[in-house]
Amino acid sequence: MRCRLTKTNKTPKETRITRIDIYLDHLDILRYYKARFQIEFVFHNAKQYTGLCDCQATSEAKLNFHFNASLAALNLLRLEDRQQAVEVAGRNVISI
């Protein structure tokens, strides 16, 4: 599938997605874009917060271990963040 993303200056929020595959449903294209940006967001956070690109090893096994450890640490951070958000939300509830 090949798509072209065009941002226009006519309106600030307008984005056009041009598709090459005319047989692909437009909802599938939107799902693919959403998944793509979620994947990019995961790698961005892993690079920024868990040192995904900081490994200096050259062995494939060591690199695999580092990448897996970095992404696992990111998952644990996200889990901890969600648990803290639930706990804080529970404390802010006022019952009358």
Summarize the structure.
Helix content is 58%, strand content 10%.
Explain what you see.
- Strand 1 and strand 2 form a beta hairpin.
- This protein folds into 2 domains: 49 residues; 45 residues.
- Helices cover 58% and strands 10% of the residues.
- The protein is mainly α and 96 residues long.
- The longest helix is centred in the last third of the chain and has 32 residues.
What are its keywords?
58% helix; 2 helices; 2 domains; mainly alpha; two-stranded antiparallel ribbon; 96 residues
Largest sheet: 2 strands, antiparallel
Q: What is the number of independent domains? A: 2
Strand content is 5-15%
Number of strands: 2
How many alpha or pi helices? 2
Give, in order, the helices and strands.
Answer: EEHH
Q: Going across the biggest sheet, name each strand in turn.
A: 1-2
